[in-house]
Amino acid sequence: MTSSYRLGIDIGGTFSDFAVVDGADGAVRVGKVLTSAHAPEESVMRGIDDLSAGIPGLLGRTCEVIHATTLVTNTILERKGAKTGLLTTEGFRDILELAREVRYDIYDMFIRLPEPMVPRRLRLGVPERVLADGTVLVPLDEAAVRQAAAVFRDEGVGAVAVSFLHSYRNGAHERRAAEILRETLPGVTLSLSHEVHPEPKEYERTSTTVLDAYVKAVAEGYLERLADGLAGRGYRERLFIMLSNGGTATVETAKQVPVQIVESGPAAGVEAAACFGRLAGIDSLLSFDMGGTTAKLCIIENGRAARTRTYEVDRAHRFKSGSGLPAAVPVYDLLEIGAGGGSIARVDDLGLIQVGPDSAGSAPGPACYGLGGAAPTVTDADLVLGYLNPDYFLGGRMALDRAAAERAVEEHLASKTGLTVLEAAAGVHEIVNENMAAAAQVYAAEKGKAPSELAMVAFGGAGPVHAAGLARKLGCPRLVIPPHSGVMSSLGLLAAPVAFERSRAVRRILKAMDLAAVEAGFRELETEVRELMPDGAAPIVRRSVDLRYSGQDYPLEIEVAGPCGTPSTKRDWEARFEALYRSLYGKVDDDNPVELASIRVHVSQPPPAFEIARPPAEADAPPKAWREVHVPAGSGMERAPVYERAALRIGQEIAGPAVIEERESTTVIGPGDRLRVDPLGCLVVDLVIRRPAAADSGAGEVPVSATFARR
Amino acid sequence: MQLDPVTIQILWNRLITIVDEAATGLMRTAYTPSVKEYHDFCCALFDADARMLSHSTVTTAGFLGIVPEVLRNFIAKYPPETLRPGDAIITNDPWIASGHLIDISIAAPIFHGGRIVGYTLCIVHHLDMGGRMSTLESKDMYEEGLKIPILKLFDEGRLNETVFDFMRANIRVPDKVLGDVRAQLVANNVCSRGLKGLLEEYRLDGLEALGAEVIHRTESSLRRRIAALPDGSYRNVAVLPKVPGCEDEVVVRIQVTVEGDGVAVDYSGSSGEVGAAINCSYNMTRSYTAYPIKLALDPHVPNNDGGLRPIRVIAPEGTIVNSRPPAATWGRTMISHLFPEIVFATMEAVMPESILASNGGSPANEVYLHGRHRDGRSFLAIAQHSGGFGASARHDGYPCLCFPNNTRNIPVEVTENEARMYYVRKELLADSGGPGRNRGGLGQEIEFAILDGGAEPARDVESSVRLSGRTEDGPFPVFGRLGGRNGRGSGLWHNGEPVDHGVYRRLAPGDRMRFVLSGGGGYGDPFEREPERVLADVEQGYVSVERAGEDYGVVVDEAAMTVDAGATRRRRDRRRQQPEAPAHRSPIRSG
Description:
Strand order of the largest sheet of chain B: 2-1-5-4-3-6-7
CATH topology of the largest domain in chain A: Nucleotidyltransferase, domain 5
Distance between the termini of chain A: 76 Å
CATH superfamily of the largest domain in chain A: ATPase, nucleotide binding domain
Number of domains of chain B: 2
Largest interface: A-B, 86 and 106 residues
Largest sheet of chain B: 7 strands, antiparallel
Number of strands of chain A: 35
Low-confidence stretches of chain A: 691-711
Helix content of chain B: 25-40%
Radius of gyration of chain B: 25 Å
Mean pLDDT of chain A: 87
Strand content of chain B: 15-25%
Oligomer: heterodimer
Shape of chain A: globular
Structural class of chain B: alpha+beta
CATH class of the largest domain in chain A: Alpha Beta
Number of strands of chain B: 22
């Protein structure tokens, strides 16, 4: 027996998904079990037992297990972490509660904010002070640390976060305080701010460190039980955990700074989208995952997803930035919007239709579920519009009540706006798409990307229903619906190439720099990352530089070829930076010097290969039915063919309007759209879009020209 | 194109998205913490008739009512027929724009299909504009820095270089300020691009129909809310805190008249201009007068020109609420930040559920630091800290939350990296929240010290710390509402000695400045606050055992950390039989 299987396990809030790839032939098998909220590791064992029925001795024959989990997020959301104390510089214990002192909604006097994770009586300051340049102004008062430890012990604290000012520049005081706490509080977990998030801005760093301390014991316990359970079933290799930025870490590393895995599950979804994009030959794409309550979007450029360190957990106002607790860890920069199949539609005081962000969820659910929900939802609208098949929802396991959906739309929307039921339903569909599009526009702008240059990869229950409409609004020319969308994230775990990134801050004016030193820096980073790769790997190494005008905060990342050091290198980097800057911000010809903010090395293995078994089909599958579907901008309902996805032949082409049904979702394409089935089983749709004029066409724009040059 | 409810909703969202994208471009390309961290700016989009259709959701409240007037003033000087693609207009004139010289407004026409379809405007509070900097001492505008009249900064794409030469010659940190000016141009570029994309996508020739529609909806929504209030006229008089170095007493008289679906706010009878830098322009007065009405009555409908139309603001020329050139205006928020609570106080009886008690950090704190690093580089740093939020009918006030302007604090570590100083403490102040059934948010105590700067003459740091000027025993404390008590704590100390706020002083290495920002006002009778909520406050150190007894009538056993129910009942009963004299009642109240 060979150890050639690779296993991906993604634990979500409702379902745990499994995917196994046979290294010998790349064949994929998938599985799904309900998640046990109280003991998620038990769901893992159940799922593995299910799969082992088809692959005897599976874990003994597995060379790699990669795991993604929502455990850390849920521990925070449900406030089920350790009782946590916070040790700070004396005089600054309230930083955690003061936050940024700003209202996240300028018109709402009654906003709510999340409770600080550590109450005031467990926030203790000790005399010590490091200055901005890293020098020590006040030495650490060790006796005060011992006194604080005594308070923590009396209070029964299980975890302590240590966050001193400017520790990102000099962490000695934090390290010494940790030594004392370890001595005096055995068994208490510790998180140090200069290790968790070594960057300036004390509130964001403290918040991140506190969240890490809060979840550490829970994460350690779970990961240990999981590793033991896997070992007990014969697994002898290392367990990998997916980080929030799609990187992988050993379980030991993940336990050290568990806040890093706060967005582990969604990251796996992004990896899956990137993988299918790559397989479909698309490098730059917008991943779009729409479920029951939320939609998640993520930009993937040149095969890599956008990342950020401004993530927030537990937002008091779910979709307003600034209303949550900052967790400044590297995460995929996902956009989460309160738009899903369960989003409720209503008419507001102004007589306008509003959709979401609140969701009917699964109970009472959309009106058409017949489970007591009376309010019209996006799913109800989609049913009225003919996009969903009332007899084939979840493969027919759940019948939908179309009359109930129409009643809900009539009563709550049509009668109040003077629209017909069909117009109102079309409005709901259009508005939820527009809500997503509007948020996606800002998100894309923040990333400095134009959606019109991206293809969309859509998944999740409601994703393929809304993808064509959303993609059209954003100007995305092409849409890809991968197979197995119901277990996309677990596949993503296996699809993710093992990858690591290391960066080094430079912060020097490029013109004045010695490039030999930069080249040496790149080489050192390359040596570091190569050591992280498994033996025998043939890694792909990429270099990039973060450039900005000296004095700005936000750099732009430019991928560069090595080695650097020729006279043209600086000119080339500056020219490419200026071109990118101009394409994002218009012509501003800044006269400040260009600064090299940091250098970055990214190393990855070639993406692992796998194949999705597909039934052979010799001829194009004919439509299994025809039904009336709503065609936007057309004359209302139109007869359109309905196809069974599993029956489609590789290479088959379908012209819109058309509906393609599968167990977990339904793909809808419009008039003029052209769909074909690629060799992997992805549905690839070329969309008819109205392309806005090129962004920077000039007329009316202020060409802020070279006239800024200093003289 | 037909504007049905669905299309309007979609396009309205898009108008807001466009200015938010502009704001993102501004923050991404800015050079100073004033923009990057502090967020003292506004981006706005207008139709061809110069009506404001949307403003950025990240902004400060003071700009909301000002922005439409700025563009109208620009157009009055440069009518549309005189504008060409590639033009940009600039000013920092306090009376034309946003009330003090430190704010620069830059606008540009948006051309599409050969005609002007709209305008984009970006206002930024800059780090420096020359002059005496942040001080209340200036007697007139000429002391306060460089004034840029309305000028074309760009004429068909060509820079009016004179403007930049003048600026460069007059300000202390020209690279940073001109860097932020460029970021404003980025914001306008991004806004123009966004609007043109929208017009293309929806095949619109212009914004006339859409603009009329969204303005109408915002206006009629607010009018409906106003109409639901009883008609009537409500008066108030507020004697404001004394301004250091200014002998004049400043009195604001207000009469709020609700009639049908409109409100008139009349400031006639208010004090005249003063020889201190606190004079408000009419625009500023109008902005902070309309803001609380929108907040209280109709917060959830997006704002635009329509949000200002139902509110008429009458302010006689030559008064402190409608000053004339060359009055000094630097610290005009010393007056204007108080309008929201003066309006709330005046309307307390009419809409008690929709108001806040006073904010302990209003008028806003501002700290300036100017000097040289040891290596000779000059620095100019700004910081702001907030006081306790006012309590409301619904909630306790949050500690240290900004109102009404809504700027973010600049992190301790950012300021310490900018300037040669360090903070000694920044901590909540126990017992500072005004007692009430709902308690006011806690204020904070801040202290900073100057670091060694090496040799003369660069060793000293010039600094001003501006506070609200409100004190517990002064004419204008941090008021509680509906029986809630006033917020507590105030003052500024230089090396332990109490000193005037809002003026510049030279600080030597080792010098310490300490100041206290008050807690927010309480709401409702504190003796009605549930004893367990008082106990929870004691447990966290928000309220002391002593004040729990005196202010709330709740007797806490400190050792056991429990409420003594019997003693509490007796104490509260005793108070009920002998109601206190209403000494805590606000001198500004409805009447």
